[in-house]
Specification:
single chain, alpha+beta, Thiol Ester Dehydrase, Chain A, 32% strand, elongated
Length: 143
């Protein structure tokens, strides 16, 4: 069964979609991401080396945080409808952080049968600090 994708007629500027939340990110999440991505920079899993590099401890890979963010738009519009995606890393995600991703519609352009939806993305931690910002574009049916 396929996911029902909203149409432009269902949406307005200012709407937000699903807000995936990842509770208490763990150090092992960083290690599992390193294994799947090939990003084995030790500052993400070795406390001593992270400290030597000037950090308080290990922290999530930026692209792991980007993966948390993209979930907000893929859950809403479906991965097959995402046309572009870009992020800016604002701060680290640390072990035990809880992060929430939000996508907000900033523009809807209806053109014939389809519509382009522009969103702004934000991932915040449990303290409300923005750890990632970005944007994504989706193409969906007009009606």
């Amino acid at each position: 069964m396929s996911k029902e994708i909203p149409t432009a007629a269902d949406l307005d500027v200012g709407d937000t979609g699903p807000e995936p939340q990842i509770e208490e990110v763990e150090r092992r999440d960083f290690v599992k991401y390193a294994g799947s991505s090939g990003d084995f920079n030790p500052i993400h899993y070795d406390q001593r080396l992270a400290n030597m590099a000037g950090y308080d401890g290990v922290f999530a890979q930026g692209m792991l945080t980007a993966g948390f963010a993209v979930q907000a738009v893929t859950d809403w519009f479906g991965i097959e409808n995402i046309e572009s995606y870009g992020v800016r890393f604002e701060s680290q995600v640390w072990p035990e952080d809880t992060v929430t991703a939000v996508a907000e519609i900033v523009d809807i352009d209806v053109d014939g049968e389809g519509a382009t939806v522009e969103t702004e993305l934000s991932v915040t931690n449990q303290d409300g600090e923005e750890v990632l910002s970005g944007e994504a574009t989706a193409t969906i049916p007009a009606e």
